[in-house]
Amino acid sequence: MTRYKTFQTADALAYALEHTDRFAGLDSTALTSEEFGDGNLNLVFRISHPDGASLILKQALPYARCVGESWPLSVDRARIEAEAMLIESQLCPALVPEIYHYDAELAVTIMEDLSDHQILRQAMVEGKRFPTLMHDMAVFLADTLFFTSDLYLDPAEKKQRVAQFINPDLCKITEDLFFLDPYCDHERNNYYPGFNERASKLWSHTALKAEIADLKYRFLTKTQSLLHGDVHAGSIFVREGSTKVIDAEFAYYGPAGFDIGSYIGNLLLNFCAQWGLMDDEDARNNYRRWILEGIDSFWNTFADRFTGYLAENTNDPSLNNLHWQSRLMQRIWHDTLGYAGAEMIRRTVGLAHVKDLDVISDHTRQLQAAGQALVLGEALVMQRRQLDNMGDVLTMLSGLVEY
Ligand code: ADP
Ligand code: MG
Predict the structure, then answer these.
(1) Distance (Å, rounded) from C-alpha 166 to C-alpha 161?
(2) Which atom in ligand 1 lies closest to the alpha carbon of residue 112?
(3) Residue 37 in contact with ligand 1 by CB distance below 6 A
(4) CA distance linking residue 357 with residue 298, whole number of Å
(5) For ligand 1, is residue 66 a contact (CB within 6 Å)?
(6) Distances, alpha carbon 207 to alpha carbons 183, 378, 383, 389, in Å
(7) Structural domains in the chain?
(8) Ligand 2 centroid, distance to 41 Cα (angstroms)
(9) What's the 299 CA to ligand 1 centre distance in angstroms?
(10) Prediction pTM value
(11) Per-10-residue mean pLDDT, the chain, length 403
């Protein structure tokens, strides 16, 4: 019999008190507990003391919160999330919240409260800039994607890790929402009134569907690196000088470019959304340039770091081959562009939208911004193998979107 039960606020408080020492020496009767998660799948409680001590307790529900009990989901994802975050915190401790405790059976993780940070998506909707964001994300992705791969790990250990992170329920969400729904007239799809024609064009775009099949097949079969699996702008907390990646429940072994592309795709979605978010043309163009320059510096930092690791830390002599390594970097780049494009497409016609586009109040501008995202997403997927570097991407982009 499993001990699993869904927590109420009082359960969360009692559990946190028993299993952490965060409130040691404080009057426990003064503690408060609230459930405030805005996420789609889980319960998130904040337990805090008036003196300032606090923590976050996250519990997985046995179904998708946003859909209800008709969409069952294994709570094993809480174990996967906690174990992935522990690996991430060994590799880049400054870039994830500290994990204080986790309990696989109750599907509970207790972690550092990041309430002094803001979710990146909201921050970018507000047009904020974060000078260390691009560097931090390049470090997070280079370090997690390299040191969990066969490029570094002993092959037997890596295979154990693949088994440790078998995550069928959450992968299925991505397999369906990312790669299936937008390319057929699926009942889960969700698009703005007036977007029907654009959406339905995807369903008969044979060449695009073949490229999406290629990207999906790589997602299904390529156990390259331990992915975070959900690096969208809602999984990144930011504050001046600090970046923290949360919510690793989609972690599994997959193609490295999926994580990198999800991140870039979300930056480009905001780039497109600014068309309807920022009225002042100069301010808008400035912000859009900040995003594009940021993507450029992000990729350069990522590639330099990853290439450096290849040179210094690749233990397998067969993989220590410069010609092959440059081919590998190019393949990761092409995957990155493809997954970035697929992310952009699915966020305009699929079930899960992004706030960046949804909050645009002027309907015409909203349709235009979503149209930019769709056109850019399609071009990235279709042309990724011809785009050798960021310069090529920018040239393509400037031919499609005015900025
Ligand atoms: P879900 O997997 O259900 O999407 P998330 O891990 O994304 O859950 O968390 C949902 C929300 O809970 C976040 O958007 C954020 O507002 C809040 N949250 C999650 N983790 C923390 C944390 N460590 N500190 C502060 N708030 C958090
Ligand atoms: Mg989540």
Answers:
(1) 9
(2) 23
(3) yes
(4) 23
(5) no
(6) 11, 11, 11, 23
(7) 9-111 (3.30.200.20), 118-400 (3.90.1200.10)
(8) 6
(9) 27
(10) 0.97
(11) 91 98 97 87 96 97 81 93 98 98 97 98 98 98 98 98 97 97 97 94 98 98 98 98 98 99 98 98 97 98 98 96 97 98 98 97 97 98 97 95 81
